[in-house]
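Predicting holo structure, heme C bound.
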Amino acid sequence: MIALRVSLICLATFCGVQLARAAALQIEITPRVSGQEIQPASLRYQTSAGETFSITRVSYLVSNFALQRTDGSWLEISNAVAWLDLAANRNSIWLENIPPDEFCAVRFLVGLNTNLNHADIATFPASHPLNPNLNGLHWSWQGGFIFLALEGLWRNAGGELDGWAYHLARDTNATRITLAAPIIVTNETKLDLDFDLEALLNAPRALSFGKDGSSTHSRDGDPVSAALVANLAGAFRIHKITALTDTEITVAHPKPLYLPAKFTPYPFQMSATFPVPDLPLDNPLTVERVQLGKELFFDQRVSINNAQSCADCHLPAKAFTDGRKTARGAEGGFGPRNSMPLFNLAWKLEFFWDGRAQSLREQVLQPIQNPIEMHQSLTNLCDKLRATNKMNYAGLFTAAFGSPEITAEKISLALENYLLTLTSFNAKFDHVLRGEEKFTADEQRGFELFSTEYDPRRGQFGADCFHCHGGPLFQSQSFANNGLDSEFLDAGRAKVTGKISDQGKFAVPSLRNVALTAPYMHDGRFLTLAEVVEHYATGVVRSATLDPNLAKHPDGGVPLSAADKQALVAFLDTLTDQDFKQITVPAYLSK
Ligand code: HEC
Ligand code: HEC
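Done. Tokens:
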């Protein structure tokens, strides 16, 4: 459970001259059905129309908290915002520095006020609940945040598994919740609330996926979003109020590791439209460390037989992929997966197709030791680098870390530093956003298809791509099954979590530079972008873990004409960053 503590500024204006010791209130909200905590991805729930459904996503924003004093006046806690998410186990917010008092009600907004909803997303720090890279709720072209995202699967009248996705957005739909509660805030107090999803889908307006539609994007006059808004107020209830003792949370600020007395800070470059990334505080970017990381990345000695560098599988000219279906190791054997592109990694939270590495420094040591990749022990690698006289590694390590010792940890920190600097944000798409270039008619049509939902009931016939590949990074921090198979040769994300509900899910790749990264998918099964688009139009295979955003489409996929398919490919081609391809490489790679 991640608790967010928010300080109440201007305390003095609230308590006047009376200097009472400030207290804190923790509000924990648990999504439930019939009083029970939700079993994610379990097909165990029923709509009032008798449809069986599961819940795979409950993600929402709450803000504008206030407590009502017994004299009727309100204490506004206006700077408190939380992103709450079932899968991420985020369910609580701390309201801090509250003057101890007796209150009789609490109120908050599900959603955001207009100012926050339209704030410049690039101003939110990496850990801020409104940073889109953290919450995955901002689809830049839809106007503000999706403040409530509910998704799951359901069994339709034909007995088939279909997807449902209810997404609430827009200022006018933000809903105020007021709950009467005798809250005595002394020291630390905890307020437990229930978020009853059964009530949300049923009362006062009952929703049926079959009759009312299995998706909403909150467009004007959409009856599903109107029903959700009407039901929201009754869906929250007080569960319990408790006094807490001694729950102080201390946040450890990691210290920079092996920082030499003299170093040159490396200027991290990104687009002004990107959210703020969470760069590792204990491995600050320095010119010296980046240089060492780059040398290591391009050095073939890193492999057992001095035949392969990282760059052999991650060629800069191909956005750091290798053009192969699956990767070929230093000794000629082939691995099971397609090499991943390397850019904008600073925004990723988990690495590899299945997300098995939690950080880059953990990730980079895996290909070195992997027997079907570089196949070299870390001890051997350190010995080899010490012995080499072609390169002055001792000097490079001293400049980067303050001493000449070569260790696996320092190798991993230097590679992490280098990989973090690989940012890509200068494609035709970015020029068009800045008004410096124009899309062709085909590209424009492709962009519309890409960023519009498929919702025939509301007259929307887009291709729904933005759900997963949305935002300025064209990726999301999530794992999804995009309908490649019904049986999974590679279990994907389930290999890491051990959950059946994660079978066949893979990291959603960024589509920036995608024209350079063929072949496609975790196993390189598609050779061209046209084949990929064909997959989403006619090849989507149903299975128990198929993403709801695809499962809600007709069988096979989202209907697209030949011209539309071509337009989508034309749009994807505008995501290529010509500058990013131009990284100078050692001679052995340009053969
Ligand atoms: C034999 C080819 C090969 C070599 C050599 C190789 N990689 Fe990779 N790389 C891959 C493949 C394949 C994947 C995906 C593997 C998976 O998901 O299991 C990958 C994934 C990655 C990722 C994860 C990217 C993401 O978005 O999650 C990073 C980072 C990476 N490699 C860095 C490196 C570094 C640094 C080196 C050198 C130390 C290296 N690779 C050497 C083939 C290779
Ligand atoms: C439900 C989420 C989801 C939706 C919606 C979605 N994708 Fe994907 N996409 C993925 C995932 C997950 C992968 C990687 C799957 C794998 O490798 O097994 C992927 C892979 C891709 C790739 C290959 C990238 C690479 O580097 O291999 C392309 C291109 C792509 N999608 C384009 C699209 C387009 C175009 C649309 C809209 C028609 C779309 N996607 C809709 C989740 C989604």
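The radius of gyration is 26 Å.
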